[in-house]
Amino acid sequence: MAKKTTSKSAPKPAATNVGLTRYGFLLIPEYSMMAFTAAVDQLRMANRLSSKTLYEWVILSDDGKPVTASNDLELATTAIADAGPLDAVFVCGGTNIESKVDKGRNSWLRHQASNNVAIGALCTATYLLADAGLLKTSRCTIHWENMAGLREQFPELVISPDLFEIDNDRYTCAGGSAAMDMMVYLIAQKHGWDLATEVAEEFLVERIRGRNDRQRLPLRLQLGASQPKLAEAVAFMEANIEELISLNEIASHVALSRRQLERLFQKYLHCAPTRYYMRLRLTHARQLLLQTSMPIVDIAYASGFVSTPHFSKCFREFFGIPPREERRTHKQIENDAASEAS
To answer: What angle do CA 81, 82, 88 make, to 5 degrees?
Structure first.
């Protein structure tokens, strides 16, 4: 029998009162099928392993019509008006999330929250919870590609880079396999860690990741423990995208000379620190360009550029395409995909 695995990065939640839990999964067009199934299958397996109906779930949509995922697979749904009593609602997002805001849905979600129903988000659906005003007092997370856009649109939010966040009956996760991690944690919280571990083992999970695991491997782990100064310098750059800092300020912050800092970047990252800083800013800008409807002039300022022409020139040199053309091409691809799905 395989050895049971537990997360080393998060405390084990204690089991609470046992009983039937009913979840609603609200599908948003172009939602991530992987995130949705990664969440639902954990519930199915918990029922099977316990030989009890611990969980029931209903697949929802705004209007009860079938919903197509980002991979073009379609699922039948029940309208939110006919959802019945729920313990939690998980909104399932995916691509082009900014265009999926709906006032009627927002009102329904707020009504659910007012009736003590926990509200969750898979993948990019955190954006929809924020738009509905449901994350004002709760720490949250979202897929790393959408973090920049979420911060710009909702600067009041506390957004973490972790795989999932559980705070004040708000459950958010980064999507993909992180939906599995979050659901395993919720199973452990409700029914104990032994069952949760068995569920994970059935899916051949080597390690149950905890709520404090990061979405992306930090540079300090990529480099190992031998280069803390370099990792600190990069973190300082990442924290100062809009308000630029000079190379001398960065060197002073990590207690190195400018030449020492330049040598570290060249040796381990194979570029000058100014080049690396530019790459961080342009990557940030590209995320805003593709994930939000912000004007390009605002994106330029939010990425530390003093003028749109300078931003456009740097963007084209780095990505090989002007920012306006990048946005236009991306939208055309999304529109073509939507037309083919319909």
So the answer is: 85
